[in-house]
C-alpha cells in the first residue's frame, strides 16, 4: 500500500519516465551483455573444446526455441502478465504437424495448420485474460495443462517420425557451409527480433506496453486500450510457440506430445535473467536476448567441463534467483540513499 | 477488472521465486550421478562416456556403476553424463557435447528411437563409436545394440519359473500391461507356444490387462482369483503388474496358495519375496548389461567388431561367467537368459 503512495509523492522528484526507462534499459542490458562476454571469455580460456565453431552452432540450436518464445514473452511480462502455456503449445504444435503428416498432409500445409493452432491457442488465452478479466497466471496454468493434455491425447506416447530430409536438413543447415557456426534458421530469429525491438523500443505501441505495466490506471486514463494490446501479445506468444514447435519437430525429426516439457520455466527464467521485471513495466529485448545466451553459454560451458547436470541446474537456478534479487536490493539501496539526501536537505 | 493489483504483484514475485527454487530443487532431487571425470582421455586409451536416460534412476545407476568398473578394469577412462529429466532433447545436448570432446565411445540408453539419430550421426562422423543398451535407437543410427534378452528367452524363463512353482500342472493366467503393447503381446505368444510344446498339463485360462496402472492391475488380480477358484499361478510380465498382484496376494487368503512370477524389479518385490508371497521372478541384471555394453564399446574402439553380424568379442566379469559374445543381425548383441531373483540373491540388488 505504501508503494503506490510513495510512487505518486516522489514522482515529481524522479526523472521523467523516458530517461528512467532509458537508464534502466541500457544499464541493465549492458550488465547482462557484459556478463555474457565474461562467461564466454572465461569458458574459451579455461574449458577444453569450448572455443570451436560447433559450440556456438549447437548453442544456438539448443536455445533457439527459447530465443523465439522469449520475444513475445517479454511483451507479455512487461505488461504485468505471464504466459505459462508456451511449452505446451510447442508440444501441441508438434503433435499437429505429426498427426497431419501421418495422415498424408504435406509438411508445408501441416506447418501452416500448426501455426493456426498457435494463433487460436494464444487467442483463447488472450480472450480469457482480457475479455473475462481472469488473472493470466491462473488462465495459462490451465491452458498449460489443457494444451499438453490434448497433445498427449492425440498421439499418446507414440512419436511420428520420418519427415522428409528437405525439411529436417533445413533447420540444421549451416549458413556458411560445413564446420561454420551460424545455423541458417537464425535468420528467422533475427528478422523476428528486429521487428520486436522496433515495436517495443521505437513505437507508441512499445511505450504503451511499458505504461500498462508501470501503472495500469494511469495508462487507461491516457487512452491506452490495455486489453487489446495484451490480447495481441498472447496471440503472439501462441503463434511463436507454435513456430518453435515446428523447429523442435523438424530438428529432432520427432513429433511427440511431450516435446518441450517444462520449457516454459526456461523461457520465463531467461526473460527474468535478461532484466525484465516480473512486476511489469521494465526490461529490454536486448537484455532478454543476452539473458537467453548467458544461460545457454553457461550451461554449454559447464557441460563441456564435465560438470554434472544437477550442478548445472543449481547454477542456472542461482543465476535466476540472484538476477531477481539483486535489482530489488539495488532499488532499496537507492531509495535509502534518496531518503537520507532528502532528510539532509530538509535539516 | 483490476488485473494487476498489489496482491497479484506479490503473487508474481512468488512465481519468480518459485521458478528459481524449482529449478534448483529439480537439481537437488536427482542424485549426484557422477560426470566428474578428469575429462582428458588423451586418445591413447579408452575414453568411454555412459549416457543414461536420466541421472538418478537406480536401474541406470546399477548398470553404469558396473560399466565403470569394467571400463576402469581394462584401463579406460569412464564418465557418466546425462540430463536430469528423461528427455530426448536433453540427451541430444549431451551427445553434441561428447562429440565436441572427441570421446572414443558413447554408451547410451535412448529416450527416443529417432530424435537422437542426427546427433549420433554427427558423433559417428567424428569417429565416436556408438553403443546403445537397454533402449535402442533406429539401427542405422548406432553401431551396436546391447539387448538385455529376447522375446523367446523372456517368455520361456517366466513359463519355466511358474511351472516349477506349481509342479508343472494346473491353471494359470497372465496379467499383462496394455492390450496393444507390442512387446507384451510378443512375449505372450511365445509363452503360449512354449506351454503347448513343453507343458501340456498347464492350462492358460485367461489373459487380463492392467494397463500398467497399479490400481487396475490390483483389481484385475482380484477378479482373476474370484473367476477361477482353481487358479494355481499368475504370470505378470510387467513390473507394475507383478507388484500390484503381489500386494493383493500378500494380504489375501491366496498367499502361498497361488504362485506369482513375471518381470519385476528387486526394490518393488523385496517385501513380497521376504514374506513368502513370491518365490522367484525374473528380469535382466542391469550390472551385466552395463559390463557387456562397456566391453562392446572397447571392442568397437579396438576395431575387433564393426557391428557386422558374426563378429565376436571378449567380456570379463559377468555374473553368468560367459566370456565371449557374437554380434547378431542388425548389430544386436543379446545378453542372454533373464536373471532370476529369489530370497538368496535379492539383497545384492538395489534398483
> What percent of the residues of chain B sit in helical stretches (DSSP H or I)?
40-55%
User: Number of helical segments of chain B?
Assistant: 10
Largest interface: A-B, 63 and 60 residues
* Sequence of strands across the biggest β-sheet of chain A: 1-2
Name of the CATH superfamily of the largest domain in chain B? Response regulator
- What form of chain A results from the Cα inertia axes? globular
The major sheet of chain B is characterized as: 6 strands, parallel
Summing up helix and strand content along with how strands pair, one would put the structural category of chain A as mainly alpha
CATH architecture of chain A: Orthogonal Bundle
Judging from the principal axes of the Cα atoms, what is the shape of chain B? Answer: elongated
Task: Provide the low-confidence segments of chain B as ranges.
Answer: 1-11, 20-43
Q: Supply the helix-strand structural class of chain B.
A: alpha/beta
Layout of helices and strands, plus pairs?
The complex is a heterodimer of chains A (347) and B (351).
Chain A: H1 2-10, H2 17-46, H3 53-78, H4 86-102, H5 107-130, H6 136-155, E1 160-161, H7 165-172, H8 186-202, H9 204-214, H10 216-221, H11 226-252, E2 254-255, H12 263-273, H13 285-304, H14 309-346
Antiparallel strand pairs in A: 1-2
Chain B: H1 6-29, E1 47-51, H2 58-73, E2 77-80, H3 88-100, E3 105-108, H4 117-125, E4 129-133, E5 144-147, H5 151-165, E6 170-176, H6 182-198, E7 202-209, H7 214-227, E8 231-236, H8 239-250, E9 259-262, H9 266-274, E10 280-283, H10 286-302, E11 312-314, E12 324-326, E13 332-334, E14 339-342
Parallel strand pairs in B: 1-2, 1-3, 3-4, 4-5, 5-13, 6-7, 6-8, 8-9
Antiparallel strand pairs in B: 10-14, 11-12
Amino acid at each position: 500500500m505504501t508503494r503506490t503512495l510513495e510512487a505518486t509523492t516522489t514522482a515529481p522528484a524522479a526523472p521523467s519516465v523516458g530517461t528512467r526507462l532509458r537508464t534502466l534499459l541500457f544499464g541493465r542490458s549492458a550488465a547482462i551483455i557484459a556478463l555474457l562476454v565474461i562467461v564466454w571469455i572465461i569458458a574459451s580460456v579455461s574449458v577444453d573444446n569450448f572455443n570451436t565453431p560447433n559450440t556456438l552452432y549447437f548453442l544456438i540450436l539448443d536455445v533457439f526455441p527459447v530465443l523465439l518464445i522469449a520475444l513475445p514473452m517479454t511483451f507479455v511480462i512487461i505488461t504485468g502478465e505471464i504466459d505459462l502455456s508456451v511449452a505446451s503449445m510447442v508440444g501441441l504444435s508438434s503433435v499437429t504437424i505429426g498427426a497431419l503428416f501421418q495422415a498424408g498432409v504435406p509438411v508445408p500445409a501441416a506447418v501452416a495448420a500448426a501455426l493456426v493452432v498457435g494463433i487460436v491457442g494464444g487467442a483463447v488465452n488472450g480472450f480469457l485474460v482480457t475479455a473475462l478479466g481472469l488473472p493470466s497466471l491462473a488462465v495459462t496454468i490451465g491452458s498449460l495443462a489443457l494444451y499438453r493434455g490434448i497433445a498427449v491425447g492425440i498421439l499418446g506416447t507414440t512419436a511420428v517420425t520420418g519427415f522428409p530430409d528437405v525439411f529436417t536438413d533445413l533447420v540444421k543447415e549451416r549458413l556458411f557451409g560445413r564446420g561454420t557456426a551460424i545455423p541458417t534458421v537464425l535468420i528467422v530469429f533475427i528478422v523476428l527480433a528486429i521487428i520486436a525491438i522496433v515495436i517495443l523500443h521505437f513505437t507508441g505501441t512499445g511505450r504503451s506496453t511499458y505504461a500498462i505495466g508501470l501503472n495500469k490506471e494511469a495508462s487507461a486514463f491516457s487512452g491506452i486500450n490495455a486489453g487489446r494490446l495484451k490480447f495481441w501479445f498472447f496471440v503472439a506468444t501462441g503463434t511463436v510457440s507454435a513456430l518453435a514447435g515446428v523447429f523442435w519437430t523438424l530438428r529432432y525429426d520427432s513429433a511427440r506430445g511431450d516435446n518441450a516439457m517444462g520449457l516454459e520455466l526456461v523461457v520465463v527464467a531467461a526473460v527474468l535473467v535478461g532484466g525484465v521485471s516480473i512486476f511489469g513495466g521494465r526490461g529490454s529485448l536486448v537484455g532478454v536476448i543476452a539473458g537467453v545466451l548467458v544461460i545457454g553459454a553457461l550451461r554449454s560451458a559447464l557441460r563441456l567441463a564435465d560438470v554434472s547436470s544437477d550442478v548445472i541446474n543449481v547454477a542456472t537456478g542461482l543465476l535466476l534467483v540472484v538476477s531477481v534479487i539483486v535489482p530489488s536490493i539495488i532499488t532499496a539501496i537507492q531509495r535509502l540513499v534518496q531518503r537520507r539526501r532528502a532528510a539532509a536537505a530538509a535539516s | 477488472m483490476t488485473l494487476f493489483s498489489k496482491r497479484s504483484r506479490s503473487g508474481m514475485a512468488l512465481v519468480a521465486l518459485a521458478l528459481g527454487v524449482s529449478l534448483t530443487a529439480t537439481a537437488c532431487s536427482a542424485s549426484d550421478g557422477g560426470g566428474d571425470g578428469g575429462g582428458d582421455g588423451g586418445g591413447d586409451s579408452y575414453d568411454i562416456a555412459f549416457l543414461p536416460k536420466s541421472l538418478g534412476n537406480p536401474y541406470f545407476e546399477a548398470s553404469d556403476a558396473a560399466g565403470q568398473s569394467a571400463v576402469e578394469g581394462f584401463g579406460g577412462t569412464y564418465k557418466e553424463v546425462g540430463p536430469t529429466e528423461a528427455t530426448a532433447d536433453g540427451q541430444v545436448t549431451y551427445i553434441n557435447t561428447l562429440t565436441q570432446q572427441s570421446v572414443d565411445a558413447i554408451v547410451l540408453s535412448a529416450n527416443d528411437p529417432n530424435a537422437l539419430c542426427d546427433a549420433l550421426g554427427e558423433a559417428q562422423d567424428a569417429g565416436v563409436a556408438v553403443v546403445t543398451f537397454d533402449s535402442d535407437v533406429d539401427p542405422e543410427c548406432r553401431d551396436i545394440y546391447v539387448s538385455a534378452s529376447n522375446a523367446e528367452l523372456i517368455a520361456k524363463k517366466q513359463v519355466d519359473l511358474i511351472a516349477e512353482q506349481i509342479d508343472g500342472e494346473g491353471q494359470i493366467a497372465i496379467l499383462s500391461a496394455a492390450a496393444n503393447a507390442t512387446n507384451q503381446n510378443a512375449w505372450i505368444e511365445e509363452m503360449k507356444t512354449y506351454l503347448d510344446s513343453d507343458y501340456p498339463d498347464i492350462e492358460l485360462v485367461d489373459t487380463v490387462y492392467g494397463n500398467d496402472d497399479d490400481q487396475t492391475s490390483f483389481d484385475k488380480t482380484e477378479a482373476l482369483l474370484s473367476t477361477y477358484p482353481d487358479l494355481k499361478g499368475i504370470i505378470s510380465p510387467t513390473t507394475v503388474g507383478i507388484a500390484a498382484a503381489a500386494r493383493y496376494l500378500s494380504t489375501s487368503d491366496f498367499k502361498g496358495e497361488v504362485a506369482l512370477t513375471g518381470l519385476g524389479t528387486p526394490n518393488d518385490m523385496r517385501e513380497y519375496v521376504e514374506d513368502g508371497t513370491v518365490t522367484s521372478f525374473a528380469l535382466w541384471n542391469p550390472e551385466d548389461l552395463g559390463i557387456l555394453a562397456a566391453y562392446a564399446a572397447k571392442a568397437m574402439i579396438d576395431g575387433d567388431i564393426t557391428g557386422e553380424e558374426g563378429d565376436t568379442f571378449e567380456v570379463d566379469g559377468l555374473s553368468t561367467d560367459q566370456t565371449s559374445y557374437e554380434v547378431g543381425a542388425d548389430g544386436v548383441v543379446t545378453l542372454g537368459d533373464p536373471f532370476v531373483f529369489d530370497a538368496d540373491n535379492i539383497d545384492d540388488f538395489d534398483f
